[in-house]
Amino acid sequence: MSRRRIGFWYRLAAVIAKPWLIVFFKRDWRGMENIPTDGGFITAVNHNSYLDPFSYAHFQYNTGRVPRFLAKYALFKAPLVGALLRRIGQIPVYRESTDAANAFRAAVEAINSGECVAFYPEGTLTRDPDQWPMAGKTGAARVALLTKAPVIPVAQWGANEALPPYGKLKLFPRKTFKVLAGPPVDLSAYYGLEPTAENLRGATEAIMDAITELLAELRGEPAPTERYDHRRSARARQTARRETVTESAGSAGSADNADDADNAGNAEKSGA
């Protein structure tokens, strides 16, 4: 299977970005030997800072296998942004598609053509209070089972210390961008099975377990036993808010009833 060459525009972006990354950040890179030398593959990466795509891309660019990131198809329709995304080979995701597999058709085509497609399975910056990976979405697993391409888990740490989630940039003292790529995740137990929610969730959990294990190695501390689930947490907060509103309404109703009773009692006394 072939591997895609690094194009002019991708090289230009690297020429612009790399000097700044080298000047402002130290590097601790491990596991480059786990990046396939040819053929299509998937990387599944944790996300804890708006800076970490640069940290991860710098790491993988130096392996000679450049990552192609996923972006909403709507961005490709914008005149300037869309042209730039196409020139550096980014991958559209057709989220408006009613067919989940069809939404990732461009990613599947890229992998089958010998490219690397990078997924952030969490779908957004981690909301975990201690910045461990959250529960993942099933897109990476779905594409992996469609293509049977290797899934390389990648953990990173350090970009979040320079730019914390939803925080301010702190360049000094210089932070170390740590990136660790692991061996392929074994998803063979799911090959040939129907892509049911249960099977996709199982494959996704295997991917997230591998990323979390690598991150624990980078951080030098054990990972939590239970993975943070942002959607479950959001539902719990909504339920708590509804209960609070109900309790407040009940308290207000009790107070109104008490006031009515007092008024009625005063009226009876006045009549007497």
TrEMBL record:
Transmembrane helix in keyword set: yes
Regions of compositional bias (Low complexity) in chain numbering: 263-272
InterPro entries: Plipid/glycerol_acylTrfase
Region (Disordered) residue spans: 221-272
Biased composition (Basic and acidic residues): 221-231
CDD domains: LPLAT_AGPAT-like
SUPFAM superfamilies: Glycerol-3-phosphate (1)-acyltransferase
Membrane spanning stretches: 6-25
Annotated ranges, domain Phospholipid/glycerol acyltransferase: 41-159
Superkingdom to which the source organism belongs: Bacteria
GO molecular function: acyltransferase activity
UniProt keywords, alphabetically: Acyltransferase, Membrane, Transferase, Transmembrane, Transmembrane helix
Protein name: Lysophospholipid acyltransferase family protein
